[in-house]
Design a protein that fits this description.
It is a single chain. The longest helix has 7 residues. The model has no long low-confidence stretch (mean pLDDT about 85). Helices cover about 15% and strands about 50% of the residues. It has a single domain, classed as Elongation Factor Tu (Ef-tu), domain 3 (Beta Barrel), CATH 2.40.30. It has about 140 residues and is mainly beta.
Length: about 140
Amino acid sequence: MAKKPVKGAGLEIPVSFGNVSFGDHTASVSCKASRSNLSVTQADRSLCGKRLTGTILARPEGSGSDQPGLLGTDGDLEVAGVFDVDGFGVKTVNISFTVSFSLKDIDRATFSEFAKRNGRIEISEIASIDDEEESDE
């Protein structure tokens, strides 16, 4: 049984997006966050095995996630909704993870444009993924 969602999580993570992939029912993009922006404890508490409600934002090509300017403007790409993170990996300088959306909830063309860009993940709600749902995937 899923735990009660944590509302107003308010977590914002600057990331570098990696490869985008599409499955039969899901779309996913790999992400890397600097350990100076996301601790292992935060990743474990807020990402690992979680169903998140929020927004992923990609800056225009060549822009950094920490570059001045308001995110959500200047040609930024945005996908809002519910996405899952099954786990994460840790290296000396970064934490990597993959966010997965249901294909029916996103625009494929827009989502494809996230590949190899910098941006941000904004999380407004955190819930655990049900054990039953994990075994179905």
